[in-house]
Amino acid sequence: MPNWVRTRLTFNGEKNRVAEIKELVKTTGKDDEGNDYTNDFDFNKVIPMPEELNIPSSSYGDRGMKYLLLNAKHTILWSDDDRSFIESMKKQKEEDPDLFNESIELGKKYLNNISKYGYTTWYNWSCDNWGTKWNSCEVEWISDNCVEFETAWSFCYPVVQKISEMFPDVEIVFCFADEDCGSNTGDGRMIAGKETDDTEYPDTGDNRAYEIYLDLHPEYEDELVYDPDLDTYKWVVRDDCDEGDDFEE
Questions:
Q1: Which of 186, 218, 223, 227 could serve as a FRET partner for 125 with CA atoms 20 to 30 Å apart?
Q2: How far is it, in rounded angstroms, from Cα 42 to Cα 18?
């Protein structure tokens, strides 16, 4: 499982423009089982992922792609490792032809996607174009102009920047914090796709990093407290802890 990063975005601008943003990022549809679903902050509505990239990202596809590429190259150019790989694939073809064929078909799709989009699958495309490998989750609009959600591993910077470019008259105030307390945090403002000078990304363990974490995780404000003697934040024992559940550093 990834570390989850909680993000809050506040949109400051004319009400009709903020309403346009809310409408832009909302999507409804049906899942693979035919059930209705809604995503109130869908990255695909801002930076659409090509549908052809929505295929499995796996070592089988990588092996199939490598096999196809090597067979398109003259054998005199193969390295010893290449020859060993080809032999292993031939063995797989004999022992498990279904898996071999699956690898080849997926490899063909990878090569086609690289040619068209520069990526084999959704994974690297998402990391580069959304800033995180998956779409948003746990989305909640906590007011008419403020939304919170979570992403895997990192902040969705490219998505926020794109919205800012699309709505240059709306100021976006952002903050984010990793569930790994005191690391991977940031807060600031963006206007017309540009960060303002007061935007900051504190170092891990910096007091400002803990402050941002607590702003986004107020449920821990009684457990993660500032110690003036140490000039840092530390976990303390809760009154309702069971014996042995010691949060103090």
A1: 186
A2: 16
Percent share of the chain, pLDDT over 90? 82
Predicted confidence (pLDDT) per residue in 135-151, tens digit = 999 999 999 999 999 99
Closest residue by Cα to residue 174 from 192, 151, 195? 195
What pLDDT, on the 0 to 100 scale, is given for residue 230? Answer: 93
| Residue of 43, 5, 11 whose CA lies nearest to 189 | 11
Distance CA 120, CA 170 (A): 35
Pair 236, 225: CB distance under 8 Å: yes
The residues, any chain, with a CB within 8 Å of residue 81's CB and separated by 6 or more, are: none
Place of tokens 């010893």: 80
pLDDT category at 240 given cuts 50, 70, 90 is low
Report the DSSP beta bridge partners of residue 171. 12
Q: DSSP of 111-150, one letter per residue?
A: HHHHHHHS-SSHHHHHHHHTSSSS--EEEEEEETTEEEEE
CA 238, distance to chain mean position in Å, is 33
Q: Judging by beta carbons within 10 Å of its beta carbon (0-12, 13-18, 19+), is residue 80 exposed, middle or buried?
A: exposed
Residue corresponding to tokens 């992403």: 151
**Nearest of 148, 193, 198, 144 to residue 171 by alpha carbon:** 193
Reduce the DSSP state of residue 172 to 3 states and report it.
Answer: strand
- The CB density around residue 118, as the number of other CB atoms within 10 Å, is 10
User: Quick one: what percent of the chain has pLDDT higher than 70?
Assistant: 95
- Asked if residue 204 has pLDDT above 80, the reply is yes
**H helix and E strand count, the chain:** 7, 10
Which of the four pLDDT bands, split at 50, 70 and 90, describes residue 247? very low
